[in-house]
Amino acid sequence: MMPPLFVFPDPKPGGYNPLTGSTEGSDIAYTKKGWMNALTFSKFIDHFDKHAGTERPVTLLFDSVSSHIDISVFTIAKLKEIELHRIDPNATQLMQPLDKAEKTQGEAQIENTSQKKLTEAFLLFYKPPTVINAFKSSGIYPVDSSAISSEALKPALL
């Protein structure tokens, strides 16, 4: 599991470092609204490359947010042997493994996150068995086309 890259809204805080107490290797980016943009997605590709191990090629699944669709980012990823695969817009909630992991961890909701260390929050949700089960329940790994029922897929096909 790789450490997170956080995206926060500008301005950068002056009195403290938001990464204090976070998982080692965590990184941070700032944007006007605190949302991913092409520049921060490029930074994420570098972060992913650094923490994804040395075996290549490696696959990165990403959602269909328009800021993720940038030819320069795709070019950088290709040079780093990172294969980018977009999840269909209406199927993200069904197939994005870590979204599924968070939903399956409902009983472990973090209350008052601002008062917890980032490492504790990260480890609460992203335990290896939780992540493994999220990929399995999405049918992504191991590949299982029956993991998501036809009934669940109907809204995604609209």
End-to-end separation in angstroms reads: 34 Å
Beta percentage is 5-15%
Q: Please mark out the parts with pLDDT under 50 across 5 or more consecutive residues, or reply none.
A: 104-115
The percent range for helix content is: 25-40%
What coarse outline follows from CA principal-axis ratios? globular
Structural class: alpha/beta
Query: Rounded to an integer, what's the Rg over CA atoms?
Result: 17 Å
Biggest sheet architecture: 2 strands, parallel
Q: Give a count of the beta strands, DSSP E runs of length 2 or more.
A: 4
Order of helices and strands: EEHEHEHHHHH
Mean pLDDT, as a whole number?
Answer: 80
Q: Biggest sheet, strands in spatial order?
A: 1-2
Counted by DSSP, the helix tally is 7
Concise summary:
This protein is of the alpha/beta class and 158 residues long. 37% of the residues lie in helices and 13% in strands.
What can you see in these coordinates?
It contains seven helices and four strands. With 158 residues, it is α/β, with parallel strands linked by helices. The strands form two sheets. A two-stranded parallel ribbon has the order 1-2. Strands 3-4 form a two-stranded parallel sheet. Helix 4 crosses helix 6. About 8% of the residues have low confidence.
